[in-house]
């Protein structure tokens, strides 16, 4: 660690800094003279000490110990509470209240870890398929059936969801999947035998998407006592469709590539279970999906911290996590500042990110688990979508996430000794 940072912390701990507007009077550590004046223009700090003038105040490398002392003091003396109110027009207003305190004690609570237990892992893997069929049936049993209308009787919605998810789990084509589907029918998991064309047809129903999203959330609830730290990210799944364009640089040469869908999800960092999910086209931005994913998870889980990469770095996202009582761990872009006009929670996080980078990254590193989650989904169920239409591709991607959650539950049954119950957990 830089010696100037260490000395700055010592000054903040042992000496009294006086603030006047956007300037601070920092006493000299040697006791000579009246001290040094640190100023802040909304973007950069300045100091009238010889060390700062000699190093030209290059941000990140040219800060002197007096500036570091001011930054530490700002973190320790600001305690912010944020409340959110929703207006009739749907807009959300975040109100922040700041009060001065003498010190803010930060205690690091050691969280339990769950190392790989090979006997439990082997048992989960060798019995996974049989347990998967049973848990999927229990999950689909709570699906409400749509009222019957005129015409031919419809296939029960629970049967359709079960067949679609089981097909995705098997990674087989529709025709090759019929043997497994017949076995599931014989075991009583289906009320009737289905045709492979019927499964493909029902995947093209737009109203199936919100139901699958709800099932993803319900399937994660048995682990709500385990998960308190979460991570957000997105990843693409290729499709069988192609995007064509002309490359004018090489003389209007026609080119094409696979189009893709993007899956945005939030997962727990302990078991990798997905708590909320949204599927969009491949060009959808990541940041606007952050708030809905966090809000959906907060309805059922207690959030302690939320991690996300640079794509989610915005003041609104940071403030939203703070209003839910959780700590945001989102790194700052190179042009970000902790200016006086910024939100207090943004300013405090910026100073913490700048001065305690190692401690910040130690918590932010939990975000790596969301990358593991996507790897688990793609490695097990494929990174490509078989469906032909866009609606069916959306639903197929959601089925992959739902199958992943059930597999996480099976692993947790053997490692943590849980007994999954679905709709009862949602009611609780």
Mean pLDDT: 85
Percent helix range = 40-55%
The number of domains is: 2
Poorly predicted tracts of residues: 100-109
**Strand and helix order:** HEEEEHHEEHHHHHHEEEHEHEHHHHH
Using only C-alpha atoms, the radius of gyration works out to 27 Å
Largest sheet: 5 strands, mixed
Overall geometry:
elongated
Strand content: 15-25%
Task: Please count the beta strands (DSSP E, at least 2 residues each).
Answer: 11
Widest sheet: strand ordering: 9-8-7-10-11
Count of discrete alpha- or pi-helical segments spanning 4 or more residues: 16
What would you say this structure looks like, in words?
With 428 residues, the chain is an alpha+beta fold. It has two domains: 3-77, no CATH class; 112-146 and 153-428, no CATH class. Helix content is 42%, strand content 19%. It has helices spanning 3-14, 50-55, 65-77, 118-126, 128-140, 157-170, 178-186, 196-203, 208-220, 290-298, 315-323, 344-355, 357-364, 368-381, 390-415, 423-427; strands spanning 18-20, 23-26, 36-40, 45-47, 79-86, 92-99, 229-247, 253-268, 274-281, 305-307, 327-329. Strands 9-8-7-10-11 form a five-stranded mixed β-sheet, sandwiched between helices. The model is unreliable at 100-109 (pLDDT under 50).
């Amino acid at each position: 660690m830089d010696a100037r940072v260490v000395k700055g912390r010592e000054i903040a701990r042992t000496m009294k800094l006086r603030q006047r507007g956007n300037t601070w009077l920092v006493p000299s550590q040697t006791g000579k003279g009246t001290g040094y004046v640190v100023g802040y223009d909304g973007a950069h700090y300045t100091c009238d000490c010889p060390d700062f003038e000699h190093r030209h105040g290059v941000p990140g490398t040219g800060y002197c110990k007096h500036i570091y002392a001011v930054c530490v003091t700002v973190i320790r003396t600001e305690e912010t509470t944020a409340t959110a109110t929703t207006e009739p027009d749907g807009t959300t207003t975040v109100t922040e209240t700041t009060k001065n305190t003498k010190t803010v004690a930060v205690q690091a609570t050691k969280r339990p870890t769950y190392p790989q237990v090979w006997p439990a892992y082997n048992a989960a893997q060798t019995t996974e398929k049989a347990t998967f069929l049973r848990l999927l049936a229990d999950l689909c049993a709570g699906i409400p059936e749509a009222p019957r209308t005129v015409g031919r009787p419809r296939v029960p919605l629970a049967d359709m969801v079960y067949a679609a998810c089981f097909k995705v789990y098997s990674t087989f084509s529709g025709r090759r999947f019929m043997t497994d589907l017949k076995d599931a029918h014989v075991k009583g998991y289906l009320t009737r035998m289905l045709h492979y064309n019927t499964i493909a047809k029902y995947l093209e129903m737009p109203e199936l998407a919100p139901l699958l999203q709800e099932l993803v959330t319900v399937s994660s609830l048995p682990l709500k006592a385990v998960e308190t730290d979460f991570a957000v990210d997105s990843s693409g799944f290729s499709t069988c469709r192609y995007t064509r364009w002309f490359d004018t640089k090489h003389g209007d040469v026609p080119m094409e590539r696979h189009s893709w869908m993007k899956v945005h999800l939030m997962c727990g960092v302990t078991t990798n279970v997905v708590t909320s999910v949204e599927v969009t086209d491949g060009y959808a931005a990541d940041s606007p999906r952050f708030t809905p994913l966090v809000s959906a998870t907060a309805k059922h889980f207690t959030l302690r911290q939320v991690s996300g990469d640079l794509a989610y770095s915005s003041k609104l996202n940071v403030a939203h996590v703070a209003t839910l009582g959780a700590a945001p761990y989102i790194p700052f872009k190179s042009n970000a500042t902790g200016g006086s006009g910024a939100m207090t929670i943004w300013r405090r996080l910026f100073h913490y990110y700048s001065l305690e980078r190692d401690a910040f990254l130690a918590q932010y590193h939990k975000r790596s688990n969301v990358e593991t989650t996507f790897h688990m989904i793609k490695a097990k169920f494929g990174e490509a979508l078989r469906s032909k239409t866009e609606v069916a591709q959306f639903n197929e991607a959601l089925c992959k996430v739902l199958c992943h959650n059930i597999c996480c539950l099976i692993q947790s049954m053997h490692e943590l000794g849980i007994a999954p119950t679905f709709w009862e957990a949602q009611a609780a």
